[in-house]
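Predict both folds.
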Amino acid sequence: MECCDIIRNTWKTKQREERRRIFLSLFYHTVLWDLDGTVFESGEGILQTARETMAHFGWPEPEPERLRRFVGPPSHESYERIAGMPHEMAQRAGHWHRARYLAGNWRMSRFFPGIPELLRDLRQEGAKLAVASTKPRPAMEAMMDAFSLWDTFDFFACANPDGTGGEKPALIRRALDALGEHDNSRAVMIGDTRYDAAGARDTAVPFIGVLYGYGTREDMEEQGARVFAADAGELRRLLIG
């Protein structure tokens, strides 16, 4: 198990038997969730951190449309690919960004409307839920604590504290393996960016793109996405009916 992965040992024999019966009413048995832009409206804190980081390094801030793309990818990649920093500077900026975000900017996050209720109902229906997020482990743990989500998810696949290990296909595979899901057609990845869509495509897992997050439909379609939800209500219909 990767050092950033956390699993809840909830799948006892008696529970399994009951959930096999309930599974028949679900479209997907295992639901993998991105966090930023999918579960949490966290853009304010991430973008504020990006602005502070670029000011700290004396780097010009991208226009707003490009800046929004900082939500989702590992921070050091964003500074190199989106802001245009040289590689070594981008690595230092990513480190500064992670420290600054963890120091308090993550507290600007809040749930998207309807998501807590959907997570609760999926668990009640017997679905296995996992986080598959590029967010570094310390920030992920802080948010799980603050929003009381440790008992909602069965497995947490995330990036290492230094931002490495956050490749989306690897996160998806680790989550599926940990939850014993060997039929990818019974699982689904929920996300809002091209990285989520590409990760699902590369692991042959169905994908639902949410349009209320920070990515664009066009970017997700370029990575093979074909199913989308405009809000939590549409997402509920696609997952539960």
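Second protein follows, with its predicted structure tokens after the sequence.
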Amino acid sequence: MPTALVINPNTSEKMSDSIRAIAAHVFISPWEFRVVNAPAGPESLESWRDYQLAGVTILPLLKEHDDVDGVVLACFGDPGLYALKEVSALPVVGIAEAAFSLALLLGGKFGILAAMNRAIGLMDALVRMYGLEARYAGTVALDMRVLNLEEDHQGTLAVLERVSKELLTRGADVLLLGCAGLTSFTHDLTQRVPVTVIDPVEAGCRMLKIAVEMGLNTSHSGLFSLPEAQQMNGLPRAFSPEMAAYLKTWESK
């Protein structure tokens, strides 16, 4: 039976529980799935620093779970996604790229709802990287830390509804929840705004499911071609023995 690996690239078990609840609705029998955290690193991902750390720590998870059929990277920043695509023999889907792809099918312009103000610049950069500026209405933030989003569900929902109106005035007809920590708000927000709301975790899981069931895989002949063997020096000075041993395997292609 097909199995999906869903990677939460932070170390928050609470967020993994939220991701697991969404994955359970998608990966029904005969599918199986497992949700795993990054083995070390930030409890939430809120900056370029956090993204870079997470991108490194999650790489060994591919080897630890080499019996799966595909991978979902469940952080809206898609941290380390391109490296995962390069080195994996399986299809790998980032939840941001999945949500963007779905938004293009459902409306003219999409807007992103982010947690922190500093995430606005991160989201702008992500949209530019994917070349989607012409379909982008912008990002607005709740001005809240990621791990605080669920402390007051109704209060956070009220802020989501309020800031969503700003995106509607900019022409957004599809809203993306720009954080895996917002996934539990999808249904309630959908009842309060007159446009489509996309949960990126569900979008990522469903996109992976489609790819696997269609027999599709990441192309390794261009952007995501397998990296050449690389001499790895000084690993014990910077990494744990387990990580150093994993990186050492890259010395042979």
